[in-house]
Design goal:
Number of helices: 8
Structural class: alpha/beta
Number of strands: 8
Strand content: 15-25%
Radius of gyration: 16 Å
Shape: globular
Distance between the termini: 13 Å
Length: 229
């Protein structure tokens, strides 16, 4: 099991979570409002999902569409409330007006999370410089993953970047795990796995009926099978 690749699935509710776990998901990303690309879910939803499944949950900290942090104090309060409910893994990512990481917001949340593990999400794909962003965030407590497609246009466009970054894992700023998501298809998996990338993230791909329908355990199981092949 030690070299099993990680499959993370977006869950909006407990029904999604149960289906994703049944299909072989290793971890869930919890969000609400996919029309805004995923915002912080209500405490009640987190509690229902936590009670329904026993796999790790990473909870989104994001108050509005886009990559600006907005009210950082409110985000910190959300983080503290979620931790009070038992959340111990998170997802966040904010850029400033120059396209660099919003270090005020990110540091404030990293401090509120007190060492909890967290993912810096696809804001990296919109950064002015991916390399500079990684180096600025390097060493922040809890940061263990980047969710990225390698490009704002998706994995098909970003594949060369992902493969190049996978080869730099010993360099400062490149130690966090690469979690690939955003326009990812089953056809991409052999190339990614061949490059040593061992973590993928799916949302719509787990939902044959689109975002209006729930996660399909069968769809997740198909990803699990190809990932493990």
């Amino acid at each position: 099991m030690s070299n099993r690749a990680l499959l993370e699935v977006i869950a909006l509710d407990a029904q999604d979570a149960v289906a994703a776990q049944a299909g072989g998901a290793d971890r869930l990303e919890l969000v609400t409002d996919m029309a805004a690309d995923g915002l912080t879910p209500p405490l009640k939803t987190f509690a229902e999902i936590r009670a329904a499944v026993d796999i790790p949950l990473r909870v989104m900290l994001r108050a509005a569409d886009g990559f600006a942090a907005g009210d950082v104090d409110a985000l910190v309060r959300d983080a503290e409330a979620l931790r009070g409910e038992g959340a111990d893994e998170f997802v966040l990512g904010f850029l400033d007006e120059t396209g660099g990481p919003d270090m005020v917001a990110v540091r404030a949340l990293a401090s509120a999370l007190s060492g909890c593990r967290w993912t810096f999400h696809r804001a990296i794909d919109r950064a002015a410089s991916r390399d500079a962003l990684r180096k600025e965030l390097s060493g922040l407590p809890g940061l263990d993953t980047y969710l990225t497609a390698g490009s704002p246009l998706g994995v098909e466009d970003g594949l060369p970047v992902l493969l190049a970054e996978a080869g730099r894992c010993d360099e400062p700023g490149y130690e966090p795990r690469i979690l690939v998501g955003g326009g990812l298809t089953l056809a991409h998996l052999p190339v990614l796995r061949g490059a040593g990338i061992d973590a993928v993230h799916i949302g719509g791909a787990a939902r044959p009926e689109g975002w209006s329908g729930g996660v399909s355990a069968d769809a997740v199981a198909q990803w699990r099978a190809v990932l493990d092949a």
